[in-house]
Amino acid sequence: xxxxxxxxxxxxDGIYDRMTSLMKWTIGTLALFGTxxxxxxxxxYFIRQ
Length: 49
Prior knowledge:
Blueprint: H1 2-48
């Protein structure tokens, strides 16, 4: 029984690691897009004046 629970625990740990990695990539990508949009808005503001 303990072997079976250890196997389930290892699979859950693997899923958690993949989800954490995916979340980091998603947050990083959103932050990058937000930065690029902010820079473009700032450039547009300064070019108009």
